[in-house]
Amino acid sequence: MSKVIAVNAGSSSLKFTIYEVTSEDEVSSGLVDRIGLNDSNVVIKYGDGEKFETVTDVKNHEEAINILLEQLIELNIIESYDEISGTGHRIVAGGEIFKDSALLDEEGIKQVEALSDFAPLHNGPEAQGIRAFQKVLPGKPTVGVFDTSFHTTMPEKAYLYSVPMEYYEKHGARRYGAHGTSHRYVANRAAELMGKDIADLKIITCHLGNGGSITAVDGGKSVDTSMGFTPLAGITMGTRSGDIDASLVSYIMEKEGISDIKDMIDILNNKSGLLGLSGVSSDMRDVEAAAAEGNENAQAALEVFYDRVQKYIGSYIAVMGGVDAIVFTAGIGENSPATRAAIINDQMDWFGIDLDADKNDTRDEAEISADDSRVKVFTIPTDEELMIVRDTVRLANITE
Ligand code: AMP
């Protein structure tokens, strides 16, 4: 039976999920990490909670894929390579070129590589992953699914920064956003759950994970999103600062004796957010636990986090002239009822947004708004891999 592999390749790791095309059932998932280093972990989950694990040296992505595919046959997950009808690859930056997912030929892969400036840590390794799969599975269609594509519908007023226009014209300095595949999935799923055509809905999607972003989805299209030129902008995240006054950059560098701007950007990307404020952890569970034990900085981190999400929700209601549904997703959005309740609190009454405390006590897909809430609120587990597989099937014309 025909299968598609959804791939998320990093510089030293390769995550995969295999779906059966017709049923959309997930048949296996797993990862190879520490590629190029010693002692790579190969983990393959399959069947009814079964797991294969081994530690071996894996030189490069091509070797990782060979090991993986051989093991998939060994474990009877696939009978032969013929069963794989195509691969779909998550790609972070699609710039203004990729307005939808795309079937990638050599030209397309080169375009992915050329966009590396916009995502230095991601696009290069992702292209490397694509090339490796093409070597091991020659002739199988390859589809790129871009984190930015969903946001290419943003109007100019939302994506332009108010800096000299020539920076946009010459260098592509604009808002691109990210997490588009997740926002697209949960917005469409919310419309399905409401039994309405997404074209008629205004939805605010809150992807709250270690990285986080909020998107205004009007009529099924992203019209604004909180991440910017890079994922550094927007709400408070695990380790990212989110929005700050750009003048802080030179001020802190001067006061702290930081001479290299890259070090400052690294602080904003990796040492800020929940981690920087709380001094405890970037992990929401740890921050919630520390706050519950009376740690004041952890409490402050939580309050800043809630505040930023609320501000984006408020501004996106203004952007769209209303809202029909708010969706929470990703690690925090799916698993922390306390976070959802702190965001959809009494201040949201004025908008007619009201949670049902009992319904909110869940980690499953659910509508969690009060019966008389004007705006529906949902928690929807995101499924970026399923979107990757669906796009691969659609663009590669995979029929069975
Ligand atoms: P993600 O990047 O989507 O995997 O999300 C990771 C974030 O989800 C981390 O901050 C975790 O602490 C958070 N998370 C996962 N489970 C829970 C939970 N039960 N309660 C609060 N936060 C959680």
Provide the fold topology:
Layout: E1 3-9, E2 14-20, E3 26-32, E4 40-46, E5 50-56, H1 61-74, E6 84-91, E7 102-103, H2 106-114, H3 123-136, E8 142-146, H4 156-159, H5 165-171, H6 180-194, E9 202-208, E10 212-218, E11 221-225, H7 247-256, H8 261-270, H9 273-278, H10 284-292, H11 296-320, E12 325-329, H12 330-335, H13 337-343, H14 357-360, E13 366-367, E14 376-379, H15 384-395
The protein binds adenosine monophosphate (AMP).
Adenosine monophosphate (AMP) binds at residues 209-210, 238, 283-285, 288, 330-332, 335-336.
The run of helices and strands is: EEEEEHEEHHEHHHEEEHHHHHEHHHEEH
Spatial order of strands in the largest sheet: 5-4-3-2-1-6-8-7
The beta-strand count equals: 14
Largest sheet: 8 strands, mixed
Number of helices: 15
CATH architecture of the largest domain: 2-Layer Sandwich
Features:
single chain; 400 residues; alpha/beta; Nucleotidyltransferase, domain 5; 2 domains; eight-stranded mixed β-sheet; six-stranded mixed β-sheet; 14 strands; 38% helix; 20% strand; globular; binds adenosine monophosphate
